[in-house]
Amino acid sequence: QPQLVESGGGLVHAGESLRLSCTASGGMIDMYFVAWFRQAPGKEREGISLISRHGGATNYADSVKDRFIISGDRAKNTVYLEMNSLQSDDTAIYYCAAGFDGPSSINIEPKDFDIWGQGTQVTVSS
Fold first, then answer.
1. How far apart are CA 87 and CA 82, in angstroms?
2. Cα angle, residue 71 at apex, residues 11 and 14 outer, rounded to 5°
3. Contact in structure between 122 and 37 (CB atoms under 8 Å)
4. 39-75 per-position pLDDT tens digit
5. Distances, alpha carbon 38 to alpha carbons 29, 76, 101, 110, in Å
6. In whole angstroms, how large is the CA radius of gyration of the chain?
7. HSE of 94 in the Cβ direction (CA atoms, 13 Å)?
8. How far lies 7's CA from each of 14, 55, 92, 100, in Å?
9. 23 within 8 A of 4, measured Cβ to Cβ
């Protein structure tokens, strides 16, 4: 199984954009379903985006639909999350996670993913 490392988080102003990276080592990220989650203080971990094995399909939570884009680069062994029009409500620790079997429901659930990165902080100031 690969190890995952997130990067790209930081402090931005409302309305700005960030691109997060989830880079795998020790395995091919393209072989897995990969999801992005986020967790804000006092909130449950929220699944926000998913890319299928081999990148053939993507899915988004309503909270980020039309603002965030998930994509993969096989050559770089990386999955990205482009985040646009960031708002203060987007402030959270962002995690990427991988699972071989894919989702068990239409929701992006942590239980469906067993390989996790360490998280990267995204803070959006008003």
1. 14
2. 25
3. no
4. 999 999 999 999 999 998 999 999 999 999 999 999 9
5. 20, 23, 21, 10
6. 13
7. 29
8. 20, 20, 14, 22
9. yes
